[in-house]
Amino acid sequence: MSRSKFNEYATVCDECDLVNIAPPIDEGDRFSCARCNHLLVSSPSKRLERILAYGSSGLLMLALSLSFPFLSFSTSGIGRTVTFWQSMSVLLTEHFTFLGALLIFVLLVLPACYLVSVVLLAWLIKKRKNRLIQRLLVRTITVIQPWLMVDVFLVGVLVALVKMQSMADIGFGLSFWSFCGFVLCLLKSVSLVDRRWFWYQVAGAAHCPPLGEGSARSQGLMGCHFCGAVLAQEDAHCGRCGHSTHSRRPASIQITIALLVAALLMYIPANLLPIMNTTFLGVTEPSTILGGVFQLWGMGSYPIAIIILLASVFIPIAKILSLAWLCWQLRFSSRHSTTQKLKLYRITECVGRWSMIDIFVVATLTGLVQMGGFMSVVPGAAALSFAAVVILTMLAAMSYDARLLWDQEDN
């Protein structure tokens, strides 16, 4: 039997624990959860061919991004040109090791690994070769995908250039346009990836116990959070993907609260201390996140100022408060419906990585503006704290188990 399309297929929703029986799905069809409307399976036409095309193009664009000048900066007759690699590695040479390693990891290592994995996976599925490597590749892309931030970095570069336009001439190198193409190809590749679809191609439909109606837990079942297979609650590992299984994430609320407390503690110095230090003719001027917002507003760059204000000030604290409120709702439920709470959770999970814009702005300026005693930019003490806030809130959203909200409703 060909696996180019789904036949009838049982799976458990990650967000509400409902057992769903997906009907036969042809190319171009989508199937969502009957209770919470979470997308479970999509099957775009010619998925494998398109992944091969976009993924290979993305890798080519990434190689070109590393091969030519990325940005140029000139003021008062003094200029500097940097490559994409220099825009990241300069943080290492300026002794900001953690920030430099973080940028290289999320902007180069993870995207390259992701594209190589999806291209190789699509090729192996088409050739029906080496199922063991296929399983490893599906696991790899599932883990990497939430941490892809190249689109956020591109916005950060544009914000940085807006901040510098009044004092310098900015030029775009060939690598900048290659990087834009890389971002588009990567985003398109991500949109074509569906882990349930891939697991069906790699391992077929999972054998599952007898099914009834309602949530998996009410039937003595659980869903594999990695591949969506329906399992008995006593199963310690998924028989299809081999991942360890649990009906609910162990200590989900305790871990989420601990991460939120840590993020809140980091949020205070992230907003009080300078996130960037600019030196001009020997005089160093520190700039906080809000100071940068006021500077952009004073320059008349109102949309950019609003973006930074939302991404760097409002979104982190709103995400902390939203997740804290969702944890509170598991103990003291309010009149708000579970669907409304789930929508709030989805928003917090979606927007978290966009708070990295300010870190990418500082990184871009640090790489670009290094002119000795005349002018230079280096990260401030708040940069590390703010990066920690973003990472901690992303981990908190990942550790929160939305299925607990539906357990409360079912009871």
What is shown here, in short?
By secondary structure, this protein is α+β, with helices and mostly antiparallel strands. The protein has helices spanning 47-65, 84-93, 97-127, 131-144, 150-164, 174-192, 195-203, 252-272, 289-298, 302-329, 338-351, 357-368, 382-399, 403-410; strands at residues 9-12, 19-22, 29-32, 39-43, 69-75, 78-83, 169-172, 221-223, 230-232, 276-280, 283-287, 370-371, 375-379. The protein has a four-stranded antiparallel sheet. A three-stranded antiparallel sheet has the order 6-5-7.
Written account of the structure:
Helices cover 55% and strands 14% of the residues. It is an alpha+beta fold and 411 residues long. The protein has a four-stranded antiparallel beta sheet. Strand 1 (9-12) and strand 2 form a beta hairpin. Helix 1 (47-65) runs antiparallel to helix 6, helix 8 (252-272) packs antiparallel against helix 10 (302-329) and helix 10 crosses helix 11 (338-351). It is globular, with a radius of gyration of 23 Å.
Number of DSSP strand runs: 13
Q: Report the structural category.
A: alpha+beta
The averaged pLDDT comes out at 85
Beta content comes to 5-15%
Characterize the biggest β-sheet: 4 strands, antiparallel
- The 3D shape can be described as globular
Output the strand order for the largest sheet: 11-10-13-12
Distance between the termini: 42 Å
Low-confidence stretches: none
Q: What letter string, H or E per element, gives the SSE order?
A: EEEEHEEHHHHEHHEEHEEHHHHEEHH
* Rg calculated over all Cα atoms: 23 Å
Q: Give helix % range.
A: 55-70%
Oligomer: single chain
- The count of helical stretches stands at 14
